């Protein structure tokens, strides 16, 4: 059976740039374009040349080798010819193989936003597409608010799609711009649109305002559309766009799609999808969504002991695809709800082979449950669990011992007469029997402790030179001023990230406990020799 090709059009660098808190630099755009090119998407929309200096510079040269590098713009303005419209000409002069133009497809917008007649809007669509084709560009038209427009005036929405196609547009993209359409509506409307524009020239651009962007995109494909627009990790304005990191594995791995359709992402690229998703978040300085389908750290995580036992016997029980197929992994979480199956699996994962009848296992499991009752959470702090387990099994050295620590917070006027708050920490550790005392200032007590602890660890210093704290989370476990506090510290050495936990009624003590575990784990991971 011959499979039909579905094309992936990535809007991360343009639509995704409208995400609150996201601001791409030129270098960011170059890096992301390379990531997308390696992934195997068919089109990379790079932005709107002429709209800002960054996008204009980005389009000064081609940025992709495989994907069709695409510039975004608007249809020509009313009252101007295509040749005399600076915005249109700026898009056509960009170093891009394709141009995507947004066009109004809702009669309400044509009359009230553009202030022109419905016929004039159709002329603008035709002349814009014609200008792009004559310039040697592949033309795409995003029919903005197409589904809303179709519900209000089906004939006119279809007229807009027809005008674009007949003028020479390679793709006519139907946009659910406010994300308010349901999958059954998408399917019915796409089917009707395919009577005007062949399915091989129809695309869909779904927003996620109801959490249905992925479902709507798949519904459109099943109804005839052959291009999907979306963004990495679902970036986009408001609630985002269709998430390509969910769509790609669904199209590749689910039989109802994989048996009918093929995409440009191969198995090797698919196996790197989880890492790509997390690297993209790291570039944006965003915390990755641990619960994201397929690629999230918890996408294949199981806590309950009975579920863990079932997974070990047959992974298909709770895993709809193999975690490795998307570069993820199974996690049987260590918690007060887990049993020996979880424990054995996690020990094996961290390289500790233990006989299932080893009496130390029961002691370790009891210790985990007791500590979780105190507020520890090892399911989200795997590095601390690795240390706890190795200590219980006698397989980790005490690289250093903390003798004492002290933190002082002072509010004072600096040399410029400005009122500032500074923190100073002093840490005393024992390494190879020798006391080492370090002091450091920081912007806060935890920062000061972190700097002081890593300032001098004697012969272990080279092993922690690249260690840095990348995230810090605090949770109050019960109310009141004497509340127990849980602190999670995420650390990285540039190659790997890990999380450690500390618990105490004193937030500074809890933070320091997590920091100490982070350094110890780094030394263990780096293969530092014991005292």
From TrEMBL:
<dbReference type="GO" id="GO:0043714">
    <property type="term" value="F:(R)-citramalate synthase activity"/>
</dbReference>
<keyword id="KW-0808">Transferase</keyword>
<comment type="similarity">
    <text>Belongs to the alpha-IPM synthase/homocitrate synthase family.</text>
</comment>
<dbReference type="GO" id="GO:0009098">
    <property type="term" value="P:L-leucine biosynthetic process"/>
</dbReference>
<dbReference type="InterPro" id="IPR000891">
    <property type="entry name" value="PYR_CT"/>
</dbReference>
<dbReference type="Pfam" id="PF00682">
    <property type="entry name" value="HMGL-like"/>
</dbReference>
<dbReference type="InterPro" id="IPR036230">
    <property type="entry name" value="LeuA_allosteric_dom_sf"/>
</dbReference>
<comment type="pathway">
    <text>Amino-acid biosynthesis; L-isoleucine biosynthesis; 2-oxobutanoate from pyruvate: step 1/3.</text>
</comment>
<dbReference type="InterPro" id="IPR005675">
    <property type="entry name" value="Citramal_synthase"/>
</dbReference>
<dbReference type="GO" id="GO:0003852">
    <property type="term" value="F:2-isopropylmalate synthase activity"/>
</dbReference>
<keyword id="KW-0412">Isoleucine biosynthesis</keyword>
<dbReference type="InterPro" id="IPR054691">
    <property type="entry name" value="LeuA/HCS_post-cat"/>
</dbReference>
<dbReference type="InterPro" id="IPR013785">
    <property type="entry name" value="Aldolase_TIM"/>
</dbReference>
<dbReference type="Pfam" id="PF08502">
    <property type="entry name" value="LeuA_dimer"/>
</dbReference>
<dbReference type="InterPro" id="IPR013709">
    <property type="entry name" value="2-isopropylmalate_synth_dimer"/>
</dbReference>
<dbReference type="GO" id="GO:0009097">
    <property type="term" value="P:isoleucine biosynthetic process"/>
</dbReference>
<keyword id="KW-0100">Branched-chain amino acid biosynthesis</keyword>
<dbReference type="InterPro" id="IPR002034">
    <property type="entry name" value="AIPM/Hcit_synth_CS"/>
</dbReference>
<protein>
    <recommendedName>
        <fullName>Citramalate synthase</fullName>
        <ecNumber>2.3.3.21</ecNumber>
    </recommendedName>
</protein>
<feature type="domain" description="Pyruvate carboxyltransferase">
    <location>
        <begin position="6"/>
        <end position="271"/>
    </location>
</feature>
<keyword id="KW-0028">Amino-acid biosynthesis</keyword>
<dbReference type="Pfam" id="PF22617">
    <property type="entry name" value="HCS_D2"/>
</dbReference>
